[in-house]
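Reagents: none. Just compute today. Biogenesis of lysosome-related organelles complex 1 subunit 1.
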Amino acid sequence: MLSRLLKEHQAKQNERKELQEKRRREAITAATCLTEALVDHLNVGVAQAYMNQRKLDHEVKTLQIQAAQFAKQTGQWIGMVENFNQALKGFLVW
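Predicted 3D structure written out:
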């Protein structure tokens, strides 16, 4: 009778251990899936931020070029107006 109780106790302990091990493996699997999903979501955000930064860099470069062209053109217009004013002054004095 005592040996039967011991065997039953050991069998129940083994069942509990197996159930606990199964739950542990399931928890690890679930944690792994969650981690992979979070990393994938984060990577999408990082990729989007990188693309946005590239677009902004391109826009900045374009604006710099246009600003330089506008400054050059403005300088030319100022020169033309000054020459025109000088010509008018010379014409009026003459």
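Residues 2-93 form the longest helix (92 residues).
Action item: order primers for follow-up constructs.
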